[in-house]
Write a structure and sequence with these properties.
By secondary structure, this protein is of the alpha+beta class. The chain contains two helices and six strands, in the order E-H-E-E-H-E-E-E. The longest helix is centred in the last third of the chain and has 11 residues. Keywords: RNA-binding.
């Protein structure tokens, strides 16, 4: 359980912004913000994958209901599709 779902992203947030917000909690493997095919903009959520599960848990503890660019984030473990 190392991949987090991050919801509530402001439209100005990009991969670099998201990476900077989550790197303090541990080594990141991947940061991804899916884009809408029609508009080319993201849909308000992204995924952050950590090297270690403990780091992911720490990020959830610290970032869930936290703010990024003035928006309150929803951060939890990503569910497989």
């Amino acid at each position: 359980k190392r991949t987090l779902y991050v919801g509530g992203l402001d439209e100005e947030v990009n991969v670099d912004t998201l990476r900077a917000a989550f790197i303090p909690f541990g080594e990141l493997v991947d940061v991804n913000i899916p884009l809408d095919n029609e508009t080319g903009k993201h849909r308000g959520f992204g995924f952050v994958e950590y090297e270690f599960p403990d780091d992911a848990a720490e990020a959830i503890f610290n970032m869930n209901n936290g703010e990024l660019n003035g928006r309150v984030l929803s951060v939890n473990l990503a569910k497989p599709i």
